[in-house]
Amino acid sequence: MKASPRPYHHGNLREALLEAAARALETGGVGSLTLRELSRELGVSHTSPRRHFADKQALLDALAVRGFERLDAVMARAAKDRGEDFNARLTRLARAYVGFALKHPAWFGLMFEAKHRADAPPVLLDASDGAFAHPPAVFAQGQAAGEVVVGDPARLSLGAMAAVHGLLSISTNGQFKGIPLDRLVAEIIERLVWGLRPRE
Amino acid sequence: MKASPRPYHHGNLREALLEAAARALETGGVGSLTLRELSRELGVSHTSPRRHFADKQALLDALAVRGFERLDAVMARAAKDRGEDFNARLTRLARAYVGFALKHPAWFGLMFEAKHRADAPPVLLDASDGAFAHPPAVFAQGQAAGEVVVGDPARLSLGAMAAVHGLLSISTNGQFKGIPLDRLVAEIIERLVWGLRPRE
DNA sequence: ACCTGAACACCGTTCAAGT
DNA sequence: ACCTGAACACCGTTCAAGT
Predict the structure, then answer these.
(1) What's the N-to-C CA distance of chain B in angstroms?
(2) Which of A158, A171, B115, B117 has the fewest C-beta atoms lying within 10 Å of its C-beta?
(3) Would you say A49 and A39 are in contact if contact means Cβ atoms under 8 Å apart?
């Protein structure tokens, strides 16, 4: 958003660093991400990153923020109302979440690791909150349609998102005991929705 | 279990390394865990660990196995039948899980990170399976008592454990938007149990 | 303002050598 | 069998210096 000042030797080093870091993350995991290697790749000295990020952790945090922004965009698209019932809509949202996590496992891992640091910057927590604002919205509309019990949507949706996220953590290689994640997600959401029916 | 051969310079270096590593993990997180520092602490040369662990990752894997064994012990104790109903028992099991994770956050994180590596050793996956065998047992007894719908206990319990684990991942510093994890766990389990009631 | 090069204090891993 | 010491190829970070 901020207009970049005239470049010196490199076009926009900060941006280039973040992009190269994201690539490194996808290719070789967080272990392969070093400031010196990024600098080499971009043809600048290994001390250049210092001008744009206080230290390595600052770059990782910025990368985590980008991740939550991407996740936010993915969730926003999946949360759009298409006239389905609550179950179908929540399942679509959950699948989008799982899809992002499986497509960018190292990035996804970095995002939550960064968020869990005691001194995580506010901008990071805000980015996370942004992405996690979509499920409550879907729940609220489910309530409006009489498909979901009354109660704080944020609190109700937390259980659903926790289940989906936990499924990712507990599973291995996109499956659990041979059953693909996608199927398990649908199963769990359906059972959850059943439990969330208004009690007559 | 295996009888240790006569020591050379150190009593039982393998054991000492694992204990020192666990301590380092608790104190300064996984970032503070280096083979050289462990060696210094134990008064051996920095190449000694090589005799007992092929590389650093092998030590981390062994540490992760220990973690799952500890978790298994904690879960086994919590899963014991005390004559409560299914809801109370599952809540106790979930709280034990959360308690372990909050008490040893770095270790807990290491365990699942190790488990997610593509080349995770079978012994690690077995240790994980061991700890996760307790919830299905509780579910099976819940079914026997007519408190839970029919279905594969492993599959049914997966949703519950995923929700609890996910809550840990999504939350920050043992809470979520100011609400303590313990309370959220109880809430989610209760709602889940409600959804798992046999449908008449 | 932005980048460089040398220097410092660390790593993990390898390997020939010791007892 | 078990450990050592030197060596190698890396790190992140600091700092005086350049344009």
Answers:
(1) 51
(2) B117
(3) yes
**B3 band by pLDDT with thresholds 50, 70 and 90:** very low
Contacts of B107 by beta carbon, 8 Å cutoff, 6+ apart:
B22, B25, B26, B63, B67
Q: What is the pLDDT of residue A123?
A: 96
Whole-number Å distance, CA B45 to C1' C15?
15
Per-residue pLDDT of B44-79, as tens digits, reads 999 999 999 999 999 999 999 999 999 999 999 999
Domains and CATH numbers, chain A: 79-196 (1.10.357.10)
Region A154-160: mean pLDDT is 93
Q: Considering only CB atoms, which chain A residues are within 8 Å of B106?
A: none
C-alpha–C-alpha distance, residues B29 and A113, integer Å: 12
> In Å, how far from its chain's centre is CA A61?
13
Show which of residues 132-161 on chain A sit within 8 Å of chain B, judged by CB atoms: 132, 154-155, 158-159, 161
Residues β-bridged to residue B179: B176
- B154 DSSP β-pair partners: none
Which nucleotide has its C1' atom closest to residue B6's CA? D1
User: Does residue A11 reach within 7 angstroms of strand C, measured from its CB?
Assistant: no
Kindly report, residue by residue over B30-40, the tens digit of the pLDDT.
999 999 999 99
The torsion angle over the Cα atoms of residues A116, A98, A165 and A20, rounded to 10 degrees, is: -10
pLDDT tens-digit readout, B74-113: 999 999 999 999 999 999 999 999 999 999 999 999 999 9
Contacts of B186 by beta carbon, 8 Å cutoff, 6+ apart: B91, B95
Nearest to B169 among A112, A118, A191 (CB): A112
pLDDT tier, B175 (very low <50, low <70, confident <90, very high otherwise): confident
Flag whether residue B187 sits within 8 Å of chain A, measured between CB atoms: yes
Distance of alpha carbon B80 from alpha carbon B138, whole angstroms: 9
Share of chain B above pLDDT 70, in %: 94
Rounded Cα–Cα distance for residues A29 and A26 (Å) = 6
